[in-house]
Design a protein that fits this description.
The chain is of the alpha/beta class and 867 residues long. It has 27 helices and 27 strands.
């Protein structure tokens, strides 16, 4: 459009827009927030509001879309959900007093990762903004939840980035423009992307930023020199948030450095396959371990629980400390129930402290802080009944908040208004001047009521009324047919269809007293509110410490409650590298299938006889459930929760890997099989002998012989390589693999029992030693509703293939045995002589393919020995 014809108001808008071209500017105009140009088109589409034009002239047409300012709480979450960044531009002077254009300023910038107001956060989970700094193959990663003050950072390598971003699940990612494309491939494309403002931030500058924020002389305590990229990422994150909020962010009062090696490592596939926080199908928390374990009473506890699930402990002493606390809470479950009742009365005080720090808190929320702090007395008293030193330490961390609560309740009235500039928020008794002003206001209003009564009687006008509006103030209203009776002292102000409006000197005199008092009340209440807010901001550290204590106590009490109600047992840990579970069950599936009986199963793995289990059986029999429940049980034990089993003893696992199912990654041009191999490669390269490995149907994405060969080789590698001793569960439909226990001594066969007759197949869901004879795939297909003509033909084809395959295997095995070199008698070990004698008893015509393959494998093994 013609820039010469841009109005002053649009020029003002464009000044703000040019400062923030990547954000939607909500421009306050009277009672509306307006948007212009491309912002208007985008808002109209997202919010489904009308797109209009400010100037009908096509050449100078300005797209326009807006909504009432009081509707912001309804519209803003929808813009944030669409990953938009929002600039709130307010009028900062009274339009009535403004000379020329009303002055406006940016009062807030809201992005998905910088939301403070709890009205716009509809989940108790962490709302992270995560900063990533890259140099070579190393990354610094820092995450801040501005709504709670949680600030963590770490330094990792390229192989760990994707899994760590998946675990953090940030709402916004802060990266350099140079690395944006590369890093974008490592996370969900739905996450909002932002860029650094300062691309050249070096380590001394980064340290200076953090030292200034935390008022520290040195960062030696957080290892800045050992982890320079982590330090840079942390400085970038806090600087970015300060630039958005124009605030000191005092509630972000501590920073925690963590290393992935200090916790059990869970890669992206494991977190997804075990459905720890998101279900594979729906992508929600329904049907996940988090949903089943999260019976916490507070949002703080819920957030902490999720962190624990995604970062299990490695130190046995720390794990057992948690378990001992849970055990005592179970032993005194009645007291624990009382404790949970009190915890249930504590809301999200951590996020209220954040609003307090940023100055966006309202009177009702300050009253809520007082209510939550008052619960501390009851919680502390309840903890007196427990003897655990850890629980007593938690009790000692709860301070006396009486001074804070009394000051709040002595200042804020019982049912305060939400707006802090309109009065009705402070108790009259809180200030002498305020009390006097309220008295004047009350007396003035009473005087006006009495004046109305007196004027009615004096003039004989029964329908005379004294009313008020913002234009005239107080006025006298008389119907037109009685207007002749008004005295000369009345001054006519307005004529309407049915009535006349007047003012009188006497009325105006009292009006100035009443309105003057009411205006001063608003000003004074705002001043007193700000004084209280300033006082409370000095108490933020104490309030946040209370929030952390409540979170910890909540998770422990939650573990006790669900363990008691669901019959979980306290796990023990052994140094013999034995994994033993008796009557274990899947905690999620058992809860989802409440009306059905869940069949429990056992497992025993050690370093002497069996560290790899091969599991065969039909689809739907429960193989995958069995695999997952073992991994989930190990994880639950290492977060300090009782486990779903009758008895449990296990080693401390350093990593848990799962390779279950497969899907394409079309965005990266990766087929199902390639994704499967990439995930398997990660396991073989990064697992240790102290890891737990779960593999399900490896090799099914390619040809039968390719897949079988890969699966066979992978099991051999897990059995004999540097990973020897790694605890592995391997489910498969390759029945040829069931021969492996004959040549690999620590591999054992297990199968899931089924019963079958001519008409149906019954899944018993019981895992027992031995291998399955077949996969029952056609039977499962029939249960799924495949047409009977297809089922019948499939059975015919299967019979033909099995007969052909049997004869081919038999001929090949026999020819290999016949061609086997005959050693001299004196060279034949005793074991081979015994084996030969057994073979002489077998008629070649009756030798089955399995017997032939087992014999051949045994012969090869014996001849490979030194003897």
């Amino acid at each position: 459009m013609d820039t010469q014809k841009i109005t002053p108001m649009l020029k003002q808008f464009l000044q703000f827009k040019n400062q923030h071209p990547d954000k939607i500017v909500l421009f306050r105009m009277g009672d509306f927030y307006e948007t212009f140009f491309d912002d208007a088109k985008l808002c109209a589409k997202i919010l489904n509001i009308t797109l209009t034009s400010r100037d009908k002239n096509k050449e100078n047409s300005v797209p326009l879309a807006g909504f009432p300012y009081h509707s912001l709480p309804s519209y803003l979450p929808r813009l944030i959900a669409a990953n938009q960044k929002i600039v709130i531009c307010e009028q900062v002077e009274d339009p009535k007093k403004a000379k020329g254009l009303v002055k406006r300023e940016i009062v807030d910038i809201i992005t998905p990762g910088s939301i403070v107001d709890t009205e716009y956060i509809h989940s108790p989970a962490d709302n992270y903004l995560t900063s990533v700094v890259k140099e070579g193959s190393e990354y610094g990663v820092a995450s801040i939840d501005i709504s709670t003050g949680n600030f963590i950072f770490t330094q990792i390598n390229n192989d760990q980035l994707t899994a760590e971003l998946e675990r953090l699940s940030p709402k916004e990612l802060l990266v350099s423009e140079e690395n944006a494309t590369e890093i974008r491939s490592s996370f969900d494309p739905k996450i909002t992307l932002s860029h650094y403002e300062d691309e050249q931030l070096d380590l001394p500058q980064a340290e200076s930023i953090l030292k200034n924020h935390f008022s520290l002389l040195s960062l030696s305590g957080v290892g800045s020199f050992e982890h320079p990229l982590a330090t840079k990422a942390a400085a970038m994150a806090i600087s970015h948030l300060k630039s958005l909020k124009r605030n000191d962010l005092k509630h972000i009062n501590k920073i925690e450095f963590y290393t992935l090696g200090s916790r059990v490592q869970l890669d992206k596939s494991t977190v997804a396959n075990l459905e720890l926080t998101k279900s594979l199908i729906e992508g929600t928390s329904h049907g996940t371990l988090l949903q089943v374990l999260d019976q916490t009473c507070t949002p703080m506890g819920s957030r902490l629980l999720k962190k624990w699930i995604l970062r299990p402990l490695l130190e046995q002493e720390s794990i057992e400390k948690r378990l001992d606390i849970v055990e005592e809470l179970i032993e005194k479950i009645e007291r624990t129930s009382y404790l949970r009742d009190y915890l249930d009365q504590v809301g999200d005080i951590a996020r209220l402290a954040s609003k307090l720090s940023t100055g966006s808190i309202n009177p009702r929320e300050i009253l809520a802080i007082a209510e939550y702090l008052k619960i501390s007395k009851h919680i502390k008293k309840t903890l007196d009944f427990f003897a655990s030193s850890s629980l007593l330490q938690i009790k000692d961390n709860i301070q006396d908040y009486e001074e804070i609560t009394e000051k709040i309740e002595a200042t804020i009235c019982e049912n305060p208004q939400k707006l802090i500039t309109q009065g009705g928020i402070i108790r009259s008794e809180a200030n002498e001047e305020l009390r006097e002003l309220h008295e004047i206001s009350r007396q003035g209003k009473s005087w006006i009521i009495n004046l109305e009564k007196k004027e009615k009687e004096k003039l004989g006008i029964s329908n005379l009324k004294i009313n008020y509006n913002k234009v005239f103030g107080y006025y006298i209203e008389i119907s037109k047919r009685q207007a002749d009776a008004v005295p000369e002292s009345y001054i006519r102000k307005q004529t309407l269809v049915n009535c006349e409006r007047f003012i009188s000197p006497e009325l105006k005199e009292y009006e100035s007293k009443v309105l003057g008092a009411e205006e001063r009340i608003k000003e004074l209440e705002y001043e007193l509110f700000c004084q209280l807010r300033d006082y409370l901001q000095e108490q933020i550290d104490s309030i946040l410490e209370f929030a952390d204590t409540i979170a910890l106590l909540d998770v422990y009490a939650n573990f006790a409650q669900i363990s008691f109600l669901r019959g979980y047992c306290k796990p023990t840990f052994n140094a013999d590298n034995i994994l033993m579970l008796k009557e274990s069950f899947h905690p999620v599936i058992k809860e989802l299938l409440r009306e059905q009986k869940f069949v429990p199963n056992d497992i025993y793995l050690d370093d002497k006889e069996s560290n790899i289990i091969l599991i065969t059986g039909p689809n739907m029999a429960g193989k995958s459930t069995y695999l997952r429940q073992i991994a989930i049980t190990a994880l639950m034990a290492q977060i300090g929760c009782f486990v779903p089993a009758k008895e449990a003893s296990m080693p401390i696992f350093d990593k848990i890997f799962t390779r279950v199912g497969a899907s394409d990654n079309l965005a990266k041009g990766q087929s199902t099989f390639l994704v499967e191999m990439l995930e398997t490669a990660s396991i073989l390269n990064f697992a240790t002998k102290n890891s737990l490995v779960i593999l399900d149907e490896i090799g099914r994405g390619t040809s039968t012989y390719d897949g079988l060969s890969l699966a066979w080789a992978i099991i051999e590698y897990l059995h004999t390589s540097r990973l020897k001793g790694v605890k592995t569960l391997f489910a498969t439909h390759y029945h040829e693999l069931t021969y492996l226990p004959n040549i690999l001594p620590q591999v054992k066969n297990y199968n899931v029992l089924v019963e079958k007759d001519e008409n149906k197949i019954l899944f018993l869901h019981k895992v027992v030693p031995g291998h399955a004879s077949k996969s029952y795939g056609i039977d499962v297909a029939r249960l799924a509703g495949i047409p009977m003509d297809v089922i019948k033909r499939a059975k015919e084809i299967l019979t033909e293939l099995e007969e052909t395959n049997h004869n081919e295997k038999k001929e090949k095995a026999l020819s290999q045995l016949q061609a086997f070199p005959q050693p001299k008698k004196e060279e034949i070990p005793k074991k081979l002589i015994t084996l030969q004698r057994e073979l002489e008893k077998i008629s070649p015509d009756n030798l089955t393919p399995m017997e032939a393959l087992q014999t051949l494998a045994e012969l090869k093994k014996i001849l490979s020995q030194d003897s």
